[in-house]
Amino acid sequence: MCNLKGLFIDPGTRVSGWIIWDGEKCYERGLDANKDIKEMILSSKNQIDYMGIEKFENRSGMNFAKGNKFIAAGSEDFHWAIFWMGIFCATVESVNIPWEFIIRKEVKLHLTYSITASDSDIHAAIIEKLGKKSTKKFNNEMLQDKIYGSITEDIWQALGLGLYYTGTGRHTKFIRPSGH
């Protein structure tokens, strides 16, 4: 394990789920106001090696997938979510942190082997990937040894992004030669 710390964000219109993950453990996570996440990026620039952010997928040319929900292109929610995606990307670039979009469909395939997986399927796959047997009732305490606390809502999606990104080895392109 190369222990690069990635910031993974599931962007929302006003608040977003995020996690700092190295492929083995969580350093921080939260469901916070977007402006607070921006400030966190600026203040922790030496603690983050790269950022992965979910990119909306175009469906039928009119709606964009946001988890299992759809945001109509042109709606106020759509514009705000796109706005904050851009702000997060510009913020990490301003402090020289590389970033990349992550398409949710790729995360679903990696974790569940199905592009039609629901949020519940993704939760179960995350629990199984972290070494705990899935149960019908999800118990956040099962993850405390890896996550150091419970996770909720969009933090699950941010963790899914991190598991996908580190599990496929995409993060290794951000390894810097020693001495740099």
Element layout with pairings:
Blueprint (H helix, E strand, L loop, with lengths): L5 E5 L4 E7 L4 E8 H10 L6 E6 L1 E3 L3 E4 L2 E4 L3 H19 L4 E5 H9 L6 H11 L14 H4 L5 H15 L13
Parallel strand pairs: 1-4, 4-8
Antiparallel strand pairs: 1-2, 2-3, 5-6, 6-7
Helix pairs in contact: 1-2, 3-6, 4-6
Report on the architecture of this protein.
By secondary structure, the protein is an alpha/beta fold. The protein has a single domain (6-174), classed as Ribonuclease H-like superfamily/Ribonuclease H (Nucleotidyltransferase, domain 5), CATH 3.30.420.10. It is 38% helix and 23% strand. The chain contains six helices and eight strands, in the order E-E-E-H-E-E-E-E-H-E-H-H-H-H. The protein has helices spanning 34-43, 76-94, 104-112, 119-129, 144-147, 153-167; strands at 6-10, 15-21, 26-33, 50-55, 57-59, 63-66, 69-72, 99-103. The strands form two sheets. The chain has a five-stranded mixed beta sheet, with helices on both faces. A three-stranded antiparallel beta sheet has the order 5-6-7, with no helix packed on it. A hairpin with a 3-residue loop joins strand 5 and strand 6 (63-66). The radius of gyration is 16 Å and the shape is globular. Residues 60-65 and 134-142 have low confidence and may be disordered.
